[in-house]
Amino acid sequence: MSLALPHLLSFLFLVLLLPYFTRAQTSKNVSLGSSLTADNKDSYWAAPKGEFAFGFQKIGMEGYLLAIWFNKIPEKTIVWSANRDNLVPGGSKVELTKDGKFVLNDPTGNEIWKVDFGSRVAYAAMLDSGNFVLVNQDSSLWWESFNYLTDTILPTQTMNQSSKLVARYSERNYSKGKFQFTLQSDGNLVLETRAFPLDSSNAAYWSSETVSSGYQVVFNQSGSIYLIAKNGSMVNSITSNAGSTQDFYQRAILEYDGVLRHYVYPKSSTNSPKIRRWPMAWSSLSTFIPSNICKDIVEGTGGGACGFNSYCKLGDDQRPNCLCPDGYTFVDPDDVMKGCKPNFLQQSCDKALPETELFYFQPMLNTDWPLSDYEHFQHRTEDWCRKACLDDCFCAVAIFRNGDCWKKKFPVSNGRMDSSVGGKALIKIRKDNSTSKPSCADSKKKDHSTLILIGSALLSGSVFLNLLLFLAAFLLVFRSNNSKPLNPVMPGMNLQSFTYEELREATNGFKEELGSGAFATVYKGVLKSEDRYPVAVKKLNNMVRESDMEFTAEVRAIGRTNHRNLVQLLGFCNEGQHRLLVYEFMSNGSLASFLFGGSRPNWYQRMRIALGTARGLCYLHEECSTQTIHCDIKPQNILLDDSFTARISDFGLAKLLKTDQTRTTTGIRGTKGYVAPEWFRNIPVTIKVDVYSFGILFLELVCCRRSFEAEAHDEDQMILADWAYDCYKDRKLELLVENDEEALNEKKRMEKYVMIALWCIQEDPSLRPTMKKVVQMMEGAVEVSVPPDPSSFISSM
Ligand SMILES: *[C@@H]1O[C@H](CO)[C@@H](O)[C@H](O)[C@H]1NC(C)=O
Ligand SMILES: *[C@@H]1O[C@H](CO)[C@@H](O)[C@H](O)[C@H]1NC(C)=O
Ligand SMILES: *[C@@H]1O[C@H](CO)[C@@H](O)[C@H](O)[C@H]1NC(C)=O
Ligand SMILES: *[C@@H]1O[C@H](CO)[C@@H](O)[C@H](O)[C@H]1NC(C)=O
Ligand SMILES: *[C@@H]1O[C@H](CO)[C@@H](O)[C@H](O)[C@H]1NC(C)=O
Ligand SMILES: *[C@@H]1O[C@H](CO)[C@@H](O)[C@H](O)[C@H]1NC(C)=O
């Protein structure tokens, strides 16, 4: 519109015209008495152009969010919600009642959320701007969602003094999280940590420095976000022009990691097919703030960007990664911002039993935990610093930098790794840590064996501790016996047991087949419960002699695991001849059909899937109390959920291993093309077989082709692994991703990924990295060195 006018004028123009526009855009009215129910997928109210919709969106298995979302893109990205802290179950209803209320009720009639409007409102409408409004009889607005900020602002939306965006808790948990973006009543605009779970602010990590001048945050039609003074002049530019709102969907969101990001998404696929996703406009760094959250957050109380005992490092994609130092693991691998815990017992402070001999230091360059120090010494040597920390049972970490030595106490906070930090951190770790193992993510699912493990670790300790422990164990068992769920469950697990009849009904007589393999056929089903969960029912063929064992193995392995990159097992049926497993239903099918099907997924989606798969495998290998080798990693066994997140499925071949065992029994498992060479040789089979299969899969994801193509133009290109190494060696990696503009634009990253994949497919299993290392390399926390020729091992045999 008025682009030629000076921006002050055009802004005023916009403000003056807004009420008029809102009326003009209202082409679909929601009349009094209308309602929507959280059940039917397609029940929502769309804006006239269809770009936005208002209605219910299902959030995982947890419930429904009454929300507004971008409705013309596959991601259905949510921009606003009414009940972020209070998801509602299926069957809940939102209604514009005739007696003057806009109300959300759960199925039992409890009021979850409401707007009271008496009798003034004539209708409601979802506008093309993404604003949901209640309109009075005189056509003025009574209520608008734009005035109730959640974590996102949209073009034409403003933020007034004393209003704020509050980040969600995690990527998939919409409740209020740990960061907020506040335009204070004094005019200063700040990013700050919240004193979670309280609603107060804790420490600011970015500020516009506009005390007494900042008046309103504006997100204008041409995609600029800035702060204006009361007289309309701009006092601070937050993100600069990222493309017009005519061609791009835009949103700015304070994400769960504390970064405010301005995203754009091309509206038409013909416009620029290569960037059809939610990228940030990377060309300009000003499209997110702060520039390095890992360094910018320093809070006196609180853990910092990543939680206690962890450290934060910006990845290649400029996103913060939360990592644990050596000797530490995540308190909750599904919620890495909860911080890390040591894998070992702290040093004893008993004077009679000094443990100085039992600890060593793991150095980490360019790493620091500011503000956690309790002693500081100057003009010292590193050896002096090490000894001082070793002799001090309070010392968890020592920092040594240019002759300064700081002792840090537990828990350390505000951890960061960045080249600007300098010096080194010395992490104090107990030498013999073999007895204390990291346990599985979900403490609810922690089985008794973990407890016994910890118990035996303490056995050599004091009698008093043992007594305490047994008391605790007794209480735990007692409690879990008292809180028996309604359905029969297998001991120690939250699995539901189904009858064959129930599953026959759920699958409509095993009608819709989703896929089948040598041992099983998978059917789509819907559980009869009130939520009508869609599920995948896997029916194991009772013809197969091994299926009995396989069943037990699978149920036990999967029942204990819980990770967002694994397909969750919900239940099972073991009735006479019938053995079935009930899984979450994955709406986007398998990676095989996604990757090799008609429409090629984009580079970013592919790399997200690779990282998700790597994380899932890492969890199976390292973060469970029972190590699990998958043995059959391939695109058919990676499923995609509604947000295209990779979910590893099919543990049918996984063998349970005790953590100290390194070898499974013999017999080749797995699928041709993805199988590690040691299956064919007299070499122990370890978790490294999965690393190999992952490497092949990773190459397929990078190159978007199958690992073996009989019809390749060129014989050299038939076997992807060989061809990839040749291209890498000859510095011709672009051949691998021909026509893939996005990958070509990120050649450096692509090269790194190919290098990681080449490390994974080393014929010599001992050369292959662990999945943990793979994840760290992918995230940019660990450098990737030059990989050798993967097949040099055979040639030397
Ligand atoms: C919406 O309702 C208002 C007020 O009743 C009316 O003037 C307008 O024509 C309605 N619009 C549509 C598209 O029904
Ligand atoms: C900001 O203030 C203006 C004018 O007072 C008002 O119209 C608008 O609704 C307010 N916006 C928010 C988000 O509160
Ligand atoms: C989201 O996170 C909050 C805060 O930790 C937690 O209380 C809540 O249960 C989580 N909600 C879901 C649906 O997981
Ligand atoms: C508008 O207000 C700002 C901050 O209060 C001030 O710096 C600027 O000079 C004013 N501009 C005009 C045109 O009055
Ligand atoms: C939006 O703001 C930018 C930066 O101030 C300005 O250049 C542009 O003209 C504005 N667009 C509109 C439509 O007001
Ligand atoms: C203890 O942990 C460290 C770091 O994770 C590891 O390097 C070391 O090998 C472990 N020691 C034992 C005895 O397991």
Automatic annotation (TrEMBL):
Residues 508-794 form the Protein kinase domain. This is Receptor-like serine/threonine-protein kinase. It is found in: Membrane. Residues 21-147 form the Bulb-type lectin domain. ATP binds at K539. CDD domains: B_lectin (cd00028), PAN_AP_plant (cd01098), STKc_IRAK (cd14066). It holds the Pfam family Pkinase. Keywords: ATP-binding, Disulfide bond, EGF-like domain, Glycoprotein, Kinase, Lectin, Membrane, Nucleotide-binding, Receptor, Serine/threonine-protein kinase, Signal, Transferase, Transmembrane, Transmembrane helix. Belongs to the protein kinase superfamily. Ser/Thr protein kinase family. The chain crosses the membrane at residues 451-478. SMART domains: B_lectin, S_TKc. It is an enzyme of class 2 (transferase). It is a single-pass type I membrane protein. Its EC number is 2.7.11.1. Its main location: membrane. Residues 1-24 form the signal peptide. The lineage of its organism: Eukaryota, Viridiplantae, Streptophyta, Embryophyta, Tracheophyta. GO terms for cellular component: membrane. It catalyses: L-seryl-[protein] + ATP = O-phospho-L-seryl-[protein] + ADP + H(+); L-threonyl-[protein] + ATP = O-phospho-L-threonyl-[protein] + ADP + H(+). GO terms for molecular function: ATP binding; carbohydrate binding; protein serine/threonine kinase activity.
